[in-house]
Amino acid sequence: MIPLIRLGAVDSTQSFLARHPELGFCGVMADTQTVGMGRGGNSWESSAGAGLWLSARLPFSGPPGGGILRSAMAAVLEVLEPCCLTLGLKWPNDLVAYKQTEQGRRLVKVGGIIGEQNDKCVTLGLGLNIYDAPELPERVIPAASLLSLGAKNIPEMADLARSILSEWQDLSVNRSAAFYWPAAGDLISWEDGKGVCQGWEPDGRLAVQTQSGLVRLANASQLQMGIPNQNL
Fold it and tell me: Looking at residue 15, which CATH number applies to its domain?
């Protein structure tokens, strides 16, 4: 088991690991992040006590690509199974659930993962909303916490971090989630077109059938989420 370092406050756990290559393979969690990092340069709100903010530098020599993030995300879902929630994955790197609202059942985001890989290791960063979630009115898919969804048996933060690090020891394991969004058959659109999802590829790309043929999306910023299957 790789060691876990716990910090009170830091700009971001991902940046901390980048500044300290001498630490080797390890995990770093923080009670709060002042400059939390999300995908595509987005900020990630990381208030004290609200959730788990964890990064890990791990040995990995497998093929590059989004398949690593998919395996890492599914591993987190396995660790969270005792919380008695139905959690799924949203392409390319979000942990999601369905929440019942006055407008119907809606997809909400409870966490996300970012990753960097070279020929010797992979560095993963996880943000997980456990007890509270930020208000993000500009986002099509709002944030939610595990607690607001009715989670039970929530482990202590450090215990949760250690369990996740243990599962991340082998990212080659083929894991699955309760559901995927989008799933095969879902209609989706993005800035350059629209089509029907054919499924997630092993390398992390999203296969979509369009009028002009099959395309494989690799850039998450291409996908627009204002689409029909938000309310089921």
Answer: 3.30.930.10
Q: Are residues 127 and 196 in the same domain?
A: no
d(CA 193, CA 177): 28
Q: What share of the chain is helix, strand, coil (3-state, %, to 5)?
A: 20, 40, 40
**CA 178 remoteness from chain centre:** 15
| 115 and 201 both lie in a single domain | no
Q: Which residues contact 9 (CB under 8 A, 6 or more apart)?
A: 30, 31, 32, 33, 34, 48
Q: What is the number of structural domains in the chain?
A: 2
Please check whether residues 83 and 115 belong to one and the same domain: yes
In terms of residue numbers, what domain contains 75? 4-181
The sheet with strand 51-59 has its strands ordered as 4-10, 26-33, 51-59, 121-129, 104-117, 94-101, 87-90, 180-181
If pLDDT is split at 50, 70 and 90, which confidence band does 60 have?
confident
pTM of the model: 0.88
Cα–Cα dist 93/72, whole Å: 9
